[in-house]
Structure formats: structure tokens, C-alpha cells
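so my prof wants the structure for this chain in the C-alpha cells format not the other one, which i didnt know existed until like an hour ago. anyway here's the sequence
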Amino acid sequence: MAFYVTVISGIDQGKVVRIDDKPCTVGRSPNAALSLEDPSVGFEHVVLTGEGGKLFVENLSTLGTRVRGRVIEARTALASGEQVTLSDSCKLEVGKTGDASAKQSGSRVVTLAVVVLLLAVVVGGAAVVMKQRAHEAGPPGIREIHWQTGYTRISQRLEQWAKAGRFDPHMVVMFHEAWRLEQSGDLVAAREAWLDLQKALMTAHLVGAMEPKDTFASHGGNSTTALGVVMGWDPDHSSDDFQFDTDGAYAEATWAFIVQRVLILKKRIDQQ
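here's what i got, hopefully its the right format
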């Protein structure tokens, strides 16, 4: 028996994947069977496997996965109609192939409605957004897409460090939560969240990427060079360049990213 999984909330709402007898990875990875754009989802968040007429889910991310309201610690069986929560904004729903056609049609209608609503919001609020972004800190030429790229790349590296036991998983959650609050428009709470993470990194050390006594703060200092490259803003370098595709460079970029978000939000709050 084949199953399908539908994204029922978040920016990826309406996406559907069929699951037969091969493992299906879900996450932000472009190689995932169900590739998502939601920044609150892990790079490889869960793997879904059909086996013996049943569907199983297994968590792969330090961000955690919830089924029936509880964080799963092991491979968990799913029934048709059950939901899998990847984050506050992204949920999946399980179904059987017999219902796939109707489900996909309903999803397309919902997706179309969401697109129309988003277009209306974008058109109506474009002037306000442009005015806010014009006052953001950082070198001239930096745009919101650069910050989004930086967030995605840094979060992927943080998750890798956490999986390897080199970085506190709680700080990964703090990083995602601060970004989520900022994207939701709660600027005051977002700035407090970034400040909390900044304070935590003042004493945090990344083994193998820093001098023994260094922390993220002392390692990063006031430099924004690595951040510019990781964000894709620096026209002279690429994030694939060997000198910048290192844990040391990403540690520097992580510190600079957080410091800049704190400064940017303070400016935007003061202008409200």
C-alpha cells in the first residue's frame, strides 16, 4: 500500500509526496524527496518509510519532531489522517493513495487562495516594507534576500555542529526562534531573543574551529567579511571558496549575523 504526505500549513502548504517502499526524506535539502522552503524546518528533518503496509516517521533534526503532541525519540508508526509537526509553522498530514486525488485538489485550491492573499498583502505593503529595509544596517547593497540566504546557510551549519556534538542544540533552537519571531513581525521579542543568543555565544566555544580560549565573540570580533560571503553579498567571493567554507569562517559569520540583527531591530523599533 502506498501513502502520501501533504504539507498542510506554512509557506510550503499544498506540497504532496507519494511514499512507496523507498525512504522519503523531508527537509530544506534540495535533494529531499519533499523539499521545503520553510526556514523553521531542518535541512534533513525527518525520513518517512513505507513498510509492511504501514508508514513510519523518524526524526533526523536537532529541532525535534512531534506526533500526537509529543516529541518522538524513535521510529514511530503513523495512521492515515495523523499529523506530523516539524515546527510551529510547518505540519504534515498522512493519507492513503485512495484519497490522494481529492487531497491534492483541495490542496491546490487552498494554495491558490494563499497565493492570491499573499499577492494582495505584498502589493498593499510594498511601500512600507521598502521603507523599513532602506534603514537596515550593513554595507550598501544588502537586501532581504541576502539575510535569508545567510540565515539558511548558517542554520544548516549550526545543525551540523549540533549533530556532531560540537554545538549546543538549544542554541540552534534559539537561532531559529529569534528568526521566526522577527519574520512574524514581533520585533521587540525578536530582538530580545537575538540578545539572549548573543549573550550565550559570548561564552560558547566551537571545538576544532577556534583557538582554545576563544569564544564566538572573541573569534568573530567586529569583522563582517565572512558574513558578506556566506550571505552571497560579497561580489568578489563565493561561499564555496575554500577559505570561507570552513567552520572558522562560519563561526565568524554566525556572530556577525546575530550582532547585525540586534542592531537592525533596534533601529527599526526606534523608528516605529
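also thought this was worth mentioning. Confidence is low (pLDDT under 50) at residues 99-116, 125-141, 237-243.
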